[in-house]
Amino acid sequence: MLSGDEIKQGALIQNDNPNSYRAASYDLTVGRIIAPEQDRVRAGETVTIPPQGMVEVISAERVRLPADVAGYTLLKNSLSNQGILAISIGIIDPLYEGLMSSTLINFSRSPVSLRAGDAFLRVTFHEYSPSVGLQAPKPISDREYLNQRVHKVRKHFSKTFLDLETTVANLTQPVFEKSFGKWRAGLFVYVPLFALLLALLTFFMNAGTAYVSRNGANRDQIKAELRREMQQEDYVQLKKDVEDLRTQLQQISNRPPKMKQNAKP
């Protein structure tokens, strides 16, 4: 593995930043960010990656490798700690010359912001014995590289990872249509019938509640009326008994006294 000084001395990084050299690696920085549903490439701007959002990030530096050196890219730990995952990373072939890029996906529940100049990839370099007849990768200009990445994002990227909104809709719609189609005819019959039964049940419940409430409220009043009626009947009967007793006493007091009969000789 080459040290930071060896990377610098070998001129493996073009348009380099002196502050990006590390002990055994170099930190590639953000040059451009391409987001889904964008009509232009954002250069030198701050871009916020929403949760489950995807963006394509292109380096500000260019890599230029000789035949006996290969490279390897990794995502910066600072981004990994924020829930960012990088794909399209790995080995850089010997004799490659050009920009570097990676697809970043936000797997956290919070937005993550990136701006031009931020470090996003760490690249290491390794010397090796090249194979005989090694051929260089097909050269590509920076403009063509950029256009390819723009086309990639517009054609394949969605607003969220795995396009969850469309995936959920595609999964649930057939199930709903199948189930609804099966019971569609029955719904037109059972739904109105259920609504009618529910209305009747509500009516009788309200009526019963009102009846119970009314009877409960008048119960004491009814008892009081019955008590008064019973007392009135007792009073009338008692008065009648007194009148009958008075009449009997009057009759007794009006009778003539009985004469004593003489004793027989």
What does this structure look like?
- There is one protein chain.
- With 265 residues, the chain is of the alpha+beta class.
- The protein folds into two domains: 4-159, Deoxyuridine triphosphatase (dUTPase) (Deoxyuridine 5'-Triphosphate Nucleotidohydrolase, Chain A), CATH 2.70.40; 165-251.
- 44% of the residues lie in helices and 23% in strands.
- The protein has four helices and eleven strands.
- It has helices at residues 4-9, 77-80, 142-156, 164-254; strands at 13-14, 26-34, 42-43, 47-49, 54-64, 69-75, 84-87, 91-92, 97-106, 112-114, 119-127.
- The strands form two sheets. Strands 1, 2, 3, 5, 6, 7, 8, 9 and 11 form a nine-stranded antiparallel sheet that branches. A two-stranded antiparallel sheet has the order 4-10.
- It is rod-shaped and about 170 Å long.
Average pLDDT rating: 80
Q: Write down how many β-strands occur, each being a DSSP E stretch of 2 or more residues.
A: 11
The helix content is: 40-55%
CATH 4th-level superfamily of the largest domain: Deoxyuridine triphosphatase (dUTPase)
Structurally, the number of domains stands at 2
Question: Ranges with pLDDT <50 over ≥5 residues?
Answer: none
* Shape call: rod-shaped
CATH domain class name of the largest domain: Mainly Beta
Radius of gyration (CA) equals 51 Å
Order of helices and strands: HEEEEEEHEEEEEHH
Could you tell me the CATH topology label of the largest domain. Deoxyuridine 5'-Triphosphate Nucleotidohydrolase, Chain A
Q: Termini, distance in Å? A: 174 Å
**Beta-sheet strand percentage?**
15-25%
Main β-sheet description: 9 strands, antiparallel
Please give the count of helices: 4
What is the CATH architecture assignment of the largest domain? Distorted Sandwich
Classification by helices and strands: alpha+beta
